[in-house]
Design a protein that fits this description.
This protein has six helices and eight strands. It is of the alpha/beta class and 207 residues long. It has two domains: 1-32; 34-202, Rossmann fold (3-Layer(aba) Sandwich), CATH 3.40.50.150. Strands 1, 2, 3, 4, 5, 6, 7 and 8 form an eight-stranded mixed β-sheet that branches. The longest helix is centred in the N-terminal third of the chain and has 30 residues, at 3-32. The N and C termini lie far apart (77 Å).
């Protein structure tokens, strides 16, 4: 093949790469602008800081989480993250990132304890069955301090709710400052289903 032909092919590959990158960046910005994400940035994070919840495990690593980490850092909340996909490592949290299944977090981070764990956008996006959700919960409890908060964000419609239904009996509803223990945002834009946050503590008060 002539050098000019190779150059043309390389140029097209470069153009495709740029297009894919721009598309991902636009999607990340669109997700960051969602009301449910803005609630995390402007409401949840300050409430966590006010409650002295300063050691966070964030489950999942995506480009649109980077601004969340920066907001946490600004309020002196240390964040660690875990994601099973090695390609997500560049978007990991500043204090440390673990590549692996959250169901193995007790093995991945045996020396760490967290007083808040954010489990957002995982049910229906990797943890897709009640048994898997319970296994993830049991693993997260291994690295949770005794009074730790668990903030679960999930999408009714993306999942039929069996996963969260399996978790609720193992948890206790909690409050964070004057925030409600649960809140739901309607579907909008790139968020095709409603998004609900529920705040818990590990374990149950039942005797």
């Amino acid at each position: 093949m002539a050098a000019s032909g190779i150059s043309q092919i390389l140029g097209r590959v470069k153009d495709v790469f740029k297009f894919v990158l721009r598309t991902k960046q636009r999607r990340s910005r669109a997700i960051e602008a969602l009301p449910s994400r803005q609630y995390m940035q402007t409401t949840l994070i300050p409430a966590l800081a006010a409650a002295e919840r300063r050691r966070m495990l964030f489950v999942g690593a995506q480009p649109y989480n980077l601004s969340f980490y920066r907001s946490c850092e600004a309020l002196k909340i240390g964040v660690w993250s875990v994601d099973y996909d090695p390609a997500s490592a560049p978007y990991g949290a500043p204090q440390g990132h673990f590549v692996g299944d959250v169901k193995q977090i007790g093995i991945l981070a045996p020396q760490l304890k967290f007083n808040v764990i954010v489990f957002n956008g995982i049910l229906g996006f990797g943890v897709n069955a009640p048994a898997d959700a319970v296994s993830a919960l049991e693993a997260m409890e291994q690295v949770a301090e005794p009074d730790a908060l668990l903030i679960i964000g999930w999408n009714p419609g993306r999942t039929d709710g069996q996963e969260i239904a399996a978790l609720r009996p193992r948890l206790t509803r909690a409050v964070l400052g004057d925030l409600p223990s649960e809140i739901e945002f309607p579907a909008i834009g790139v968020q095709r289903d409603p998004h609900r946050y529920e705040i818990f503590k590990f374990g149950t008060t039942e005797k």
